[in-house]
Amino acid sequence: MSRTIRACRTGSSPLCANLAAVNFALDVVDAADPSRLALIALAADGERREIVFGEVADRSARLAGALAGRGIGRGDVVMTLIGNRPEWAYAMVACWRLGAVAQPCTEQLRSSDLRTRMELVDPRAVVADERDLATLEQTGFDGEILVLPDDRLLDGCEPAPAAQLGPGDPALIVFTSGTSGQPKPIRHGARYLEGQRVQAEHWYGVRDGDLCWCTAASGWSLSARNAFVAAWLRGGAAVLQDRRFDPAERLEVLERERVDVLCRSPTEYRAIAKRCELGPLAALRHAVAAGEPLNPEVVRAWEEGVGVAIHDGYGQTETGHLTGMPIGPPVRPGSMGRPLPGFRAWVDAGELVIDPSTVPTFFIDGPRDEPWHTGDRIREDEDGYLWFEGRSDDVIISAGYRIGPFEVESALISHPAVAEAAAVAAPDEVRGQVVRAVIVLRDGYEPGERLAEELQEHVKGQTAPYKYPRVVEFAAELPKTPSGKIKRAELRGDSPAWAARAARAAATMPAPGAPPGGHDCRLTGPGAR
């Protein structure tokens, strides 16, 4: 039994197939008043800079010229390895100006992660922060490398002209989490950027002159659309903060900078509500959350303490943003809202399904003439509001990070002590979920806390640190099907033993947006099952 979900009626429907020639750099950045505020950059050393559109246009155009001078042009893939700094925005806009395809990477990726991405997308160039050069060099990449910040690089280049792009011309590659294998590259066309106007208006809620802050780290799907793109499309400015997550400091920034619109992961909202005393923020008008389910208690805590109700939303790497709590009606805590205006979606046998032809941000390699099955279990209430019930696949969503178990298992198995490993989700009060690893040891190795800690550090060294298992258990064997596949559902069963261990997990973790560095506190839970 299925039926079309009723979308919000406000606003016009997106014209997915009828977008004219577009170029974000020309149509948005160059077209803005050069004296209008574009970015507030908050550096790790405390420096604060206000950057106007004239500077963004000039520096991104010169960076595009530097890329063009190295033979980079339309359709070429350019990786970025830069934190939440203005140089990242310049690099992204420079790619779009040329018609090159931007592939942003988070700074938490290790050289092995980067190599995997390079093998899949074959970048012609990498634009990197100087602090990430050592990691980049370990990949063995032999293409063009442009290091930022470097005023000499930009000053010596003429601005490149903007290419005229069709809606389906590749503009962006973002990677999936990877649930049954390695993360996959997803290509989005130029229409993806223009298509953000729908969520920017009807979910993110940006108004002309607003100051917006999306705290997601560069390299993720959410940051690619909301770190600055959505704000600029609606006449707003964006905050880019290049610092690790600190709950009290984030509240202080909201107050000091007088942020109007806030976008962050549910984990950040939970952590701040738990560790700080919430109080009114005079300028904050609207707040949204995405990346993982937002529990009702956090919505109520922020509404009671700050006076702003968090509007939850939902999307996928392949689709872009799909649903959001409507602006205007009372927020329904726990719901991910309704489909965005003009987006056709329905629930079929408990799974959310969409019509790609109605979604302007749908990926260019996906089938637009047949329904897209999201793989997410959704409940629809009598008013058309959607409620997330779980994923059909095995992805782990921890603190907003989407973690594929295959990546964790591959890192664990590379350790000489590990014969087999399975990674599943364990509940966590702050992060929503954490990675739980169940490990079968090779002969000659004994389970214990020291080995569990060694395995955790091993995973951190093999792949991005946010993927490491905070819960480690040892078992004589893994539950498997007759065909040899791991019974993940059985491993995810609500075992009182591991649930108690998960509850004792340490309370700090780098949130999305935090640059690498420092040492995560960890939970070790060795013991035979």
Secondary-structure blueprint:
Layout: E1 2-4, H1 24-30, E2 37-42, E3 48-52, H2 53-69, E4 77-81, H3 86-98, E5 101-105, H4 111-121, E6 125-129, H5 133-137, E7 144-148, H6 151-155, E8 170-175, E9 185-189, H7 190-194, H8 197-202, E10 211-214, H9 221-226, H10 229-233, E11 237-241, H11 247-257, E12 261-264, H12 266-275, E13 286-289, H13 296-305, E14 310-316, E15 320-324, E16 338-339, E17 345-348, E18 351-354, E19 372-380, E20 386-391, E21 396-398, E22 401-403, H14 405-413, E23 418-428, E24 432-441, H15 449-462, E25 471-474, H16 488-491, H17 496-503
Parallel strand pairs: 2-11, 4-5, 4-6, 6-7, 10-11, 10-12, 12-13, 13-14, 24-25
Antiparallel strand pairs: 1-17, 2-3, 8-9, 14-15, 15-16, 17-18, 18-19, 19-20, 21-22, 23-24
Helix pairs in contact: 1-3, 2-3, 11-12
Give the total of beta strands. 25
Tell me the β content: 15-25%
Query: What is the residue-averaged pLDDT?
Result: 87
Instruction: Report the uncertain regions.
Output: 1-17, 494-529
The biggest beta sheet reads: 9 strands, mixed
Helices, by number, come to 17
* Biggest β-sheet: strands ordered side by side in the sheet: 3-2-11-10-12-13-14-15-16
Explain briefly what this protein structure is.
The chain is α/β, with parallel strands linked by helices.
List keywords for this structure.
529 residues; alpha/beta; 25 strands
